[in-house]
Amino acid sequence: EGIPESHVMLWPGSGGPLVSTVAAFCSPTKGLVTADPTFESAWRTADYLKAPIAKAPQAPGAGHDVKAMLAANPNAGLYYICTPNNPTGTVTPLADIEWLLANKPKDSVLLVDEAYIHFSEAPSAAKLVAGRKDLVVMRTFSKLFGMAGVRLGLTFADPELQKRIMLFGPTAGGLSITAMACGNAVYPEAALIKARREEMIANREETIAWLTKKGIDVQTGSQANMFMMDWKKPAKEMQAAMLATPEKVQIGRNWPIWPTVSRVTVGSAEDMAKFRAAVEKVYTA
What we know:
Distance between the termini: 47 Å
Strand content: 15-25%
Number of strands: 10
Shape: globular
Number of domains: 2
Structural class: alpha/beta
CATH architecture of the largest domain: 3-Layer(aba) Sandwich
CATH topology of the largest domain: Aspartate Aminotransferase, domain 2
Strand order of the largest sheet: 1-7-6-5-4-2-3
């Protein structure tokens, strides 16, 4: 990414730095702003800190509405952008991230969570870190690399910001030698990244086309290993029904803002064939 070594910090996964960044920059007087729906970990941490939480609704198939995020709390401590977003898989354009950086309060921080960036060919916000003391970009090896249990993550940020985040959680001192070895082995594998991305896209698009043909509404725009499908009935009931099929398919959760919509993770071709078989058994228009 062309980022100086001084601006790169290793972590045991990216869940820790996400929580630590919220803890470092939010308080009862400095709130958190996110999209809705998005990854909930930041909400839980802010709630624990008694920091105000503002959520800007995200349109189906779109990236974060950064202008709505700023309007939701023009004096927040932290603005959180997950891109590609969990659960929608949609990307927030780099131009929108740059707009938020230019218009947010000077004393606030922007956290860009790129946990799923390797599934997409969208440009990274990492190049924006240089010369800034108000931007943290986060990565993990747990997604496309398939190393969730190994626990290896990164933050890109100015060293002064890194020091503030480090006060709240274990950084490189918490890494195992196994994580270090695996990270060194896998990160140069550009061809493997491309092959895994293409395999996932083929499986995702095949399944989305099948669901659409069946008359099930699938939100467009995902650039990650997930998509959102609208059952038009309570998603929690459909999640239980899918698990009860002979295929025993466990699909993702739903978010309160969209109670009839489920997050579906894209697995192997065999996984998705089982998913389609389970849907065939439980879904009636």
